[in-house]
Amino acid sequence: MAGPAVLLKVGGMMYKRKAKQDFKKHLDFMVLDVICLQIAFLFAYMTRHGFRNPYAVPLYRNMVVSLIFIDLVILILFDTLKNVLKRGYYQEFSATLKHACLVVLTATAYLFLTQGGGAYSRSTLFFMGIDYVLISYVVRLIWKQYLKRWMLQGIGHTMLLVTTSGMAQDVIENMQEHNYDMHRIIGLAILDHDVCGRKISGIPVVSGKDTTADYVGKNWVDEVFISLPDGEPEPEELIYTLGLMGVVVHQKLMKHSDVPGQKQFVENLGNYTVLTSTMNYASTAQLFLKRLLDITGGLAGCILTLLLTFVLGPLIYIQSPGPIFFSQIRVGKNGKKFRMYKFRSMYPDAEERKKELADQNIMQDSRMFKVEYDPRIIGCKRLPDGTVKKGIGNFIRDWSLDEFPQFFNVLKGDMSLVGTRPPTVEEWEQYEFHHYARLAIKPGLSGMWQVSGRNHVTDFEEVVKLDTEYIRKWNLGLDIKILLQTVAVVLRKDGVV
């Protein structure tokens, strides 16, 4: 599906495209910068104290750890890597020097506040600053040259270019030459001629005026860039539909339209100045914190999953011989498919038997599936008196234990702790345009729909409404609130998914 209308990514959990791209692009520089600072510290220490081990001295060992946090905080708080790929030699040196000064000043304040300044060598701190500027500057230049080699190929978000046959070649060349965000151009939508199947400058034409929205809905498209000649009528219906789907849309200025329910901002894309429409956006710092929360939760969840495997594995296998884990292809953010994992709580032929139970689906349409009594669940039986005897499968599902293997998906980055539930491919293929908006962010283990009483919400349109409300209102505090509500829901045995 199309690109998100969100920024956070950490989105589109609600992240604006620019923040997410900046985060992924800056992450390499952040890691390299921390390494450069540590090397500069070692060189400075050895210059002053000789070839001794600085980690054996508590004062210097504490400084090593503190420098990591100081460097990361300054990188994020002051956004010192902004436009790093666009900066020339002088601009890069100036930015590196300013950043190093902030690090040294903050380190000095740290020593003063911890009362360690008297014992810490001032020359070591001074030499560290000099070494840090030189090492970091050289490493940044080398790494930028390496990244620019990938600009033509594109290794980041997928992008669909919407233009005319006369402009197509110029738009492609411009985007490839100034591909600072490293988009992967997957196709062209040509609005003035039906040339589907052809290639222009090596890029396939995948859709025309009337088929672009369908293509975006059924393929992995992160963002759409619309660039039309001056005087060409705006594709207002297409822009409206893409906005309804939750797609990030970039329009070359002076061409733009107001998109209902979308936030708009001006930015640079390639060599163009564009107006970007998105459902929500998050800063680089917010994106970093969300991903940090996911990694922390993912690691803890994977450890718990391993422990549960030793307990649940034998119980599952004894009552239903077969795999302990169940995996299924689901549709994630922007239509990207991934394999989702669960503890198996149903018999191996559950998917084949699903069609037999279609008439018992309590959801109001086939885009989601749930039945009151599901005979596919391991150990679940209806007794002659009409009562239902629950089994190990029901226990696993009632306490949401089947969801624990998805912490591995969270750790991988396919999912987030909080988001929207990923549909199956079969469900996704039945979506209407406005349903795609719920795929504008990374899917989650839990979400607003689940904690709002999922067992009582049977209208799929209401599910979509809750999911899009979450996207538009997202902030880190909302995620934490939903996580706490999720625990309460599980303890009430309502289940989360």
How would you portray this structure in words?
By secondary structure, this protein is α/β, with parallel strands linked by helices. Helices cover 45% and strands 13% of the residues. It has helices at residues 17-49, 58-77, 89-113, 122-148, 168-177, 212-218, 236-244, 284-319, 350-353, 392-398, 406-412, 425-428, 448-451, 460-473, 476-491; strands spanning 158-163, 184-190, 199-200, 203-207, 223-226, 248-252, 263-269, 272-278, 325-331, 337-343, 381-382, 388-389, 416-418, 444-446. An 8-stranded mixed beta sheet has the order 3-4-2-1-5-6-8-7, sandwiched between helices. A two-stranded antiparallel ribbon has the order 9-10. Helix 3 packs antiparallel against helix 4 (122-148). It is flat, with a radius of gyration of 26 Å.
Strand proportion, as a percent range, falls in: 5-15%
Oligomer: single chain
Structural class: alpha/beta
Helical fraction: 40-55%
Mean pLDDT: 83
Large-scale geometry: flat
CA-to-CA gap between the ends?
A: 23 Å
The stretches of 5 or more residues where confidence is low (pLDDT under 50) are 1-21
The major sheet is characterized as:
8 strands, mixed
Strand order of the largest sheet: 3-4-2-1-5-6-8-7
Number of strands: 14
**Rg (C-alpha, Å):** 26 Å
Helix and strand pattern: HHHHEHEEEHEHEEEHEEHEEHHEHEHHH
**What is the helix tally?**
15
